[in-house]
């Protein structure tokens, strides 16, 4: 999943409807199996190091050679099957598995477990030829042949029927294969473009009928009285333009439709797994925030996912974003994270010595269990012919094999020391995919970008930043989907759309004694994407004990005095708060009215705090730190910038994300478990270096 960058009952009913429209048996109304009752599934005390492997590129002799290298390196897992539909089904209905049987047998003899990927994406050429409905039709009405990967319309009923058939055949055969440890679906699903065929329009109309039931309700939700857009009957409904122009309300429903299509596809494949392979967990390399389309992962992950997984390709200069993305993948899972693809070399990148090892230990700090290098063999052709793997193009092991050998050896030892980590985060941050969609409308006449001038993703990370710096575990979830009663603090950064389930979750949490911080830009629109016609923050004005309608932008960075210090932010957006029952904790120092900047309201047994600016780390950091003692939030080890640390079973893990040395300080004398060297009060951690001190 290339993360760079939600009500359950409704999603299930929509999934069922879509399945019926597609012409096959609907998915069961059940969620993905959890590890409870499956003690044999990977868990605490197990770490996996290995690689992604595409045997379709290799001869039998090369495969034997490759597996020998993997075994010698101590690899314990590979991911196979992805991107290979036409190798398993070269022609419709003609299945060939013997070639794969042999490779699985070889992996088993070598002691290497296999994630079996159901390769539903990309679809084979023969499928497009036999069923043109699978072709993408762009918003200009032009039919596109599958010129590049993932140009497949996964809403097409023939696609859905045939990918299900593929899953049935593969899981009938491999459900009890001793090499197979888990199942994944549709590599990077979410990345296919939106399509605009007549079939897609019909399915979209059917989706709208289920959601709104009547034309009158649709007209109200879409504000069709504006600009003479009233709809008189369903035949007048068109697919909104994903690339613009178009109004927000329609664009939001367009994203919801394609999201539900994707979730229904994943639900259907997981239904096959539960029927044929209930002994295997689900762990898929998804792409929910793909720029082409994406889907609402945070309100649906538990339908089809046992372990959160992603393709982990972090920016070496931005470990904060890397941490945020891993926690978003983890979502509400009580299981560890799997890196189904893990940074080694890459496109135009041969690799940097020590970097992969550093990121592997970084992953350990952030709940990760599985590290599969992308990829084993350097690519010789296609769009990725300059993608560099563990082996050079001539099959010779590069120095990267040695680095992953070291990781595998060290992680085998760490399995007895509390890894993978399992601890409930103390803090949660709300991440709303629907707010992301609304605040990033397609090109065209639309004033929302004139209003929301601060990027939503950046505001999420600004709220995450203080906890990242303080080495505090912080969940990234959709609070309308995942329970929040066990968190000590919940933050809502720029939660522009405030639907009923989210507002009700906040109201209950605060009334029962919880503490919430919400920032400016929040609770402005309802679930249709229209502004509330009630006092803002919509649905929560009484919880926060204030009203905020006016907003302005200071030409100078905002300044506030809080907790005995003057703090200067980085942006100028601010809202004028009108407290009713709320108490003012801080006011702006350099705005014309010096209006309240931070307020606190007692509601029920809890407290609701409002920050009247965009989500800025400069303001959030002192605010949350002022709450640590009161809320019993435990800070992690004190470290210099660039160093991530966690205490695990009495040992402290330090990871230097920078390529230059840095010194960490601690009390007493400690021994580095990795080197067996002792250190008295301080340790210089080399660039990309790690230490595990006891």
Describe this structure in words.
- The chain is an alpha/beta fold and about 700 residues long.
- Helix content is about 30%, strand content about 20%.
- The model is unreliable at about 5-30 (pLDDT under 50).
Tags for this entry?
7-stranded parallel sheet, alpha/beta, globular, 27 strands, 31% helix, 694 residues, 20 helices
Q: What's the quick description here?
A:
The chain has 694 residues and is of the alpha/beta class.
Task: Give the SSE layout.
Blueprint: H1 8-22, E1 48-52, H2 60-73, E2 77-80, H3 85-88, H4 98-109, E3 113-118, H5 125-130, E4 136-137, E5 143-144, H6 157-174, E6 180-185, H7 198-212, H8 215-221, H9 248-276, H10 301-304, E7 308-312, H11 319-330, E8 337-343, E9 346-347, H12 355-365, E10 368-374, E11 387-388, H13 399-414, E12 427-430, H14 433-439, H15 448-451, H16 456-469, E13 474-477, E14 489-492, H17 500-511, E15 515-519, H18 541-544, E16 546-553, E17 559-562, E18 565-568, E19 573-579, E20 583-587, E21 596-603, E22 606-611, H19 617-625, H20 628-631, E23 643-648, E24 651-656, E25 662-671, E26 678-685, E27 690-693
Parallel strand pairs: 1-2, 1-10, 2-3, 3-6, 7-8, 8-10, 12-13, 12-14, 14-15, 15-22
Antiparallel strand pairs: 4-5, 9-11, 16-19, 17-18, 20-21, 21-22, 23-24, 24-27, 25-26
Approximate helicity band = 25-40%
| Counted beta strands | 27
Report the C-alpha radius of gyration, rounded: 26 Å
Largest sheet: 7 strands, parallel
What is the number of helices? 20
Mean of pLDDT: 94
What structural category do the secondary elements indicate?
Answer: alpha/beta
Give the terminus-to-terminus CA distance: 35 Å
As laid out across the biggest beta sheet, the strand order is 6-3-2-1-10-8-7
* Uncertain residue ranges: 3-29
Overall 3D shape: globular
Query: What fraction of residues sit in β-strands?
Result: 15-25%
């Amino acid at each position: 999943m290339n993360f760079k960058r939600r009500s359950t009952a409704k999603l299930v009913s929509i999934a069922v409807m879509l399945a019926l429209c597609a012409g096959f048996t609907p998915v069961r109304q059940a969620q993905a199996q959890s590890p409870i009752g499956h003690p044999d599934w990977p868990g605490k005390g197990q770490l996996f190091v290995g690689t992604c492997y595409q045997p379709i590129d290799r001869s039998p002799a090369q495969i034997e050679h490759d597996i020998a290298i993997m075994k010698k390196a101590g690899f314990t897992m590979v991911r196979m099957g992805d991107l290979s539909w036409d190798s398993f089904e070269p022609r419709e209905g003609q299945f060939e598995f013997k070639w794969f049987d042999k490779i699985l047998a070889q992996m088993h003899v070598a002691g290497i477990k296999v994630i079996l990927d159901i390769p539903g994406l990309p679809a084979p050429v023969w499928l497009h030829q036999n069923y043109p409905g699978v072709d993408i039709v762009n918003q200009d009405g032009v039919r596109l042949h599958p010129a590049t990967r993932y140009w497949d319309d996964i809403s097409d009923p023939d696609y859905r029927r045939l990918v299900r058939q593929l899953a049935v055949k593969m899981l009938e055969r491999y459900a009890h294969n001793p090499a197979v440890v888990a199942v994944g679906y549709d590599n990077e699903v979410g990345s296919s473009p939106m399509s605009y065929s007549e079939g897609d329009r019909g399915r979209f109309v059917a989706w709208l009928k289920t959601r709104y039931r009547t034309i009158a309700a649709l007209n109200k939700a879409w504000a069709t009285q504006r600009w003479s857009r009233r709809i008189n009957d369903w035949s007048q409904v068109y697919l909104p333009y994903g690339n613009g122009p178009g109004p927000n309300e329609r664009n939001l429903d367009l994203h919801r439709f394609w999201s539900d299509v994707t979730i229904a596809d994943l639900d259907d494949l997981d239904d096959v797994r539960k029927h044929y392979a209930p002994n295997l967990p689900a762990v898929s390399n998804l792409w929910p925030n793909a720029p082409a389309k994406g889907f609402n992962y945070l309100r649906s992950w538990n339908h089809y996912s046992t372990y959160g997984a992603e393709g982990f390709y972090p920016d070496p200069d931005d470990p904060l974003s890397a941490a945020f993305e891993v926690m978003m993948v983890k979502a509400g899972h009580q299981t560890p994270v799997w890196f189904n693809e893990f940074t080694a070399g890459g496109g135009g990148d041969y690799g940097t010595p020590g970097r992969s090892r550093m990121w592997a230990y970084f992953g350990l700090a952030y709940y990760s269990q599985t590290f599969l290098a992308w990829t084993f063999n350097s690519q010789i052709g296609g769009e990725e012919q300059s993608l560099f793997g563990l082996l050079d193009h001539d099959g010779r092991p590069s120095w990267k094999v040695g680095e992953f050998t070291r990781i595998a050896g060290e992680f085998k030892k760490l399995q007895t020391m509390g890894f993978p980590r399992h601890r409930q985060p103390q803090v949660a941050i709300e991440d709303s995919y629907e707010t992301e969609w609304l605040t990033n409308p397609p090109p065209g006449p639309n004033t929302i970008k004139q209003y929301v001038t601060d990027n939503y993703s950046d505001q999420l990370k600004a709220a995450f930043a203080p906890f990242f710096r303080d080495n505090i575990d912080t969940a990234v979830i959709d609070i309308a989907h995942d329970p929040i009663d066990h968190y000590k603090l919940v933050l809502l950064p720029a939660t522009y759309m405030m639907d009923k389930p989210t507002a009700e979750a906040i109201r209950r949490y605060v009334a029962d004694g919880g503490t919430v911080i919400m920032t400016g830009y929040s609770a402005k629109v309802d679930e249709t994407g229209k502004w509330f016609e009630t006092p803002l923050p919509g649905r929560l004005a009484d919880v926060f004990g204030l009203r905020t309608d006016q907003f302005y932008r200071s030409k100078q960075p905002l300044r506030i005095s809080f907790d005995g210090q003057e703090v200067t932010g980085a942006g100028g957006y601010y809202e004028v708060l009108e407290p009713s029952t709320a108490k003012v904790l801080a006011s702006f120092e350099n705005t014309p009215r010096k209006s309240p900047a931070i307020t606190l309201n007692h509601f029920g047994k809890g407290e609701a705090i409002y920050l009247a600016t965009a989500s800025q780390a400069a303001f959030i950091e002192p605010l949350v730190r002022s709450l640590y003692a009161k809320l019993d939030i435990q800070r992690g080890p004190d470290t210099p910038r660039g160093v991530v640390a966690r205490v695990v079973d009495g040992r402290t893990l330090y990871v230097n994300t920078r390529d230059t040395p840095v010194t960490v300080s601690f009390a007493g004398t400690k021994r580095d478990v990795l080197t067996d060297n002792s250190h008295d009060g301080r340790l210089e951690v080399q660039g990309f270096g790690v230490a595990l001190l006891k």
